[in-house]
Amino acid sequence: MVICVMSTPSLTLTQYLLTLLAAHPEQEALARIMNDLALIGKQISTKTNKAGLVDVLGGTDSRNIHGEHVQKLDVFANELCKSIFKRNPHIAAMASEEEEMVVNMEEGPSVGEYIIAFDPLDGSSNIDVNVSIGTIFSVHKKREDVSSSDERQFFQKGSAQVLAGYILYGSSTVLIFSFGNGVHECTLDHELGEWYVSNEQIQIPKQCTYYSVNETYTPITSAKDRAFLQYVKEEKKCDARHIGSLVADVHRNLIKGGVHMSFGRDKEGAGMYKAKLRLNYELKPLAFVLKNAGGSATNGYEDILDILPSQLHERQPVVMGNSDMVAYYNTLSV
In CATH terms, is domain 210-331 a member of 2.60.120.680? Predict the structure, then answer.
């Protein structure tokens, strides 16, 4: 009889951050923010694993700023993030995808060096059917030319991010992050309550294997978007894989090679294509991760990381994943 012994990676996230600090002591504040994100990931992961047992399934009677039904777990995740970040002396301001304005920091120090934008629970409509969901985060240096509570703190290009990533709650819970020098993965060991480094340097495969898009809306997308989708399917022969949870779709494409599309939609037939995804909370951090893993992201005309937001909840269309696919999309002029 052969007995298989599962080995545990030896390097913990804490050890990784201590190594980082030994080489870059000026990164202490970012290491503290990473510790907070790790704590948030543990608590949300525990709650999602018990979702059917602790009354967090289902929706509330309210809608968020985007008109979306708020789920019970949305509320928990949002309040948890705010509570933890408010106690961090290095965070001067924060913005949540769930809230209309910059979050009030009166209870916290609000004198820190950094600001953080986050989507506390992306894909929350999938909670009740046990589909992967996630937390997305984006960290910038604080602007000195406006007050901490001013929403213009978040009008910064994605290329200026100093830390970004996401936590994916799926068959395992993984923390994907980048300080701008590569993309790293940690996996949560629930029994030990510890994050272990499971991939020190993620690179997106060069071959585009999959595409993810909600094809229901294809008839109301632009001619350029329809031409690109046809190219992906018929010429590149990519296989369709669409979960409907942004973090999960992007993560699969990051690991396996693929491209995710969220096109503008002309629902009124007036030639006005409206985007769905938020620049500050979703696109900037995911584009930052992809860029540092060898991928890229575009709105069809401009690199997502080069776009300067003009609204806190600004939306943009996106094609993101393998760089060659993104580059081809940019060349289309139809």
Answer: no
> Could you report how far apart the first and last alpha carbons of the chain are, in Å?
63
**CA 148, CA 114: separation in Å to the nearest integer?**
10
DSSP annotation of 274: B
Instruction: Tell me the C-alpha distance between 292 and 174, whole Å.
Output: 17
Reading the block at residue 147, the tokens are 């007050």
Are the beta carbons of 330 and 298 closer than 8 angstroms? yes
**CA angle, 239 as apex, 235 and 240 as ends, to 5°?**
115
pLDDT in tens, 16-48: 999 999 999 999 999 999 999 999 999 999 998
State the CB neighbour count (10 A cutoff) for residue 170.
Answer: 19
| Domain spans in the chain, listed from the N-terminal domain onward | 13-199, 210-331
Distance (Å, whole) CA 77 – CA 99: 13
The correct answer on CATH 3.90.25.10 for the domain covering 13-199 is no
Q: Which DSSP helix (H) or strand (E) runs through 34?
A: helix 28-49
DSSP string for residues in 136-189: EEEEEEPPSSS-TTSGGGG---GGG-SEEEEEEESSSEEEEEESSS--EEEEEE
Q: What is the DSSP letter of 278?
A: B
Q: Chain-centre distance of CA 150, in angstroms? A: 23
Q: Can you tell me the distance from the alpha carbon of 319 to that of 303, in angstroms, rounded to the nearest whole number? A: 10
Q: Residue 220 corresponds to which tokens in the numbers above?
A: 């109301």
CA distance 87 to 95: 15
pLDDT tens sequence across 283-297: 999 999 999 999 999
